[in-house]
């Protein structure tokens, strides 16, 4: 529950009209939100102060006589213009509200909820503007290393990188400069954790169908993933690179060859096992079957030999 939802329920909670299933969520939110807790306490204090001054009920006979005398006095007043009559009616209506505090409280609550609903509707239907790329320092030379990556809400990501001094860039994953920084993070990060984060974000972009083509000069996200799969010493990075390359196994021969090479020579058994699963859509390919035969008889891991044999049997049934 966020603060907006909590404020909608605080008024009901003060007057004991909040349902039990909403009360649990409100209590959990108040336990971690000091601002909403203070608002609840303020409303409770106001209600307690109002209770200290009970409203005395007038004598019915006195009330009836007073109304009769008021009506007679009003009839004796000469007719006024429209604005005067409007002002008099407004004052009379306010007098009725003062005599009915429950109605006044209800109207205040309705006004509060109505204003809150209007605000939330305007926010929900406001045009979404993609935030601009934010750089903490516009000066400096080229990027040397990537020192940190933080995933922000939505499709935002924060990349910390080094030039002469540490800098930080914040922007959408669709921003070309953010993507370029992530590619640099795959190659020049100061720690394996940063390389894993960089590869994971770019791999997710490829898996959901975003642009991951190989550029004419051999650069691009897909090329960077291929390089990480072949050369990175961290098995976590290589696993993430495999996940990002999965959509292209059936359409890109260079991706298929890289996955086959990983199956044959990667030192990590988990990476080799994952490579077998990626090759499932192309198991009937001659080069794939040849590698699977080699692995099924020569791999040091008995589980991988078994999985390779099962994959060969499956491709034979397909043929």
In CATH, the topology of the largest domain is named: Leucine-rich Repeat Variant
Helical fraction equals 55-70%
Quaternary structure classification: single chain
N-to-C order of helices and strands: HHHHHHEEEEHHHHHHHH
Main sheet: which strands, in order across?
1-4-3-2
In CATH terms, what is the architecture of the largest domain? Alpha Horseshoe
Low-confidence stretches: none
Q: Helix/strand/pairing class, anyone?
A: alpha+beta
N→C terminal distance: 55 Å
CATH domain class of the largest domain: Mainly Alpha
Label the overall shape: elongated
Strand content: 5-15%
Largest sheet: 4 strands, antiparallel
Total beta strands = 4
Mean pLDDT: 77
Q: Helix segment count? A: 14
From the alpha-carbon coordinates, what is the Rg to the nearest angstrom? Answer: 35 Å
Any idea how many domains?
Answer: 2
Polypeptide structure, described:
- It is a single chain.
- Strand 2 and strand 3 form a beta hairpin.
- The protein folds into two domains: 3-52 and 84-124; 134-318, Alpha Horseshoe (Leucine-rich Repeat Variant).
- The chain is of the alpha+beta class and 319 residues long.
- It has a four-stranded antiparallel beta sheet.
- It is elongated and about 110 Å long.
- The mean pLDDT is 77.
- The chain is built from 14 helices and four strands.
- Helix 7 (176-188) crosses helix 8 (192-207) and helix 9 (221-231) packs antiparallel against helix 10 (235-245).
- The longest helix has 24 residues, at 101-124.
């Amino acid at each position: 529950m966020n603060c907006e939802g909590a404020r909608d329920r605080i008024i009901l909670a003060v007057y004991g009209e909040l349902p039990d299933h909403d009360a649990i969520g409100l209590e959990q939110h108040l336990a971690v939100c000091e601002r909403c807790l203070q608002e609840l306490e303020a409303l409770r204090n106001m209600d307690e102060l109002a209770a200290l001054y009970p409203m005395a009920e007038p004598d019915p006979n006195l009330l009836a006589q007073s109304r009769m005398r008021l009506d007679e006095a009003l009839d004796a007043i000469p007719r006024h213009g429209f604005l005067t009559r409007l002002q008099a009616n407004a004052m009379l209506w306010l007098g009725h509200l003062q005599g009915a505090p429950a109605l006044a409280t209800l109207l205040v609550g309705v006004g509060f909820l109505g204003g809150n609903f209007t605000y939330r509707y305007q926010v929900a239907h406001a045009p979404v503007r993609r935030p601009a790329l934010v750089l903490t320092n516009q000066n400096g030379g080229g990027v040397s290393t990537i020192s940190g990556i933080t995933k922000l809400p939505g499709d935002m990501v924060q990349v910390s990188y080094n030039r002469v001094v540490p800098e930080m860039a914040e922007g959408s994953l669709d921003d070309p400069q953010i993507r370029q920084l992530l590619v640099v993070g795959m190659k020049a990060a100061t720690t394996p954790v940063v390389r894993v984060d960089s590869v994971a974000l770019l791999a997710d972009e490829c898996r959901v169908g975003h642009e991951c083509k190989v550029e004419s000069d051999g650069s691009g996200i897909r090329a960077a993933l291929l390089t990480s799969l072949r050369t990175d010493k961290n098995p976590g990075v290589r696993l993430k690179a495999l996940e990002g390359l999965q959509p292209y196994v059936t359409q890109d021969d260079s991706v298929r060859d890289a996955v086959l090479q990983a199956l044959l020579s990667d030192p990590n058994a988990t990476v080799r096992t994952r490579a077998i699963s990626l090759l499932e859509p192309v198991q009937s390919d001659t080069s794939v079957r040849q590698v699977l035969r080699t692995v099924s008889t020569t791999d040091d891991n008995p589980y991988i030999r078994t999985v390779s044999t099962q994959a060969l049997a499956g491709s034979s049934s397909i043929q």
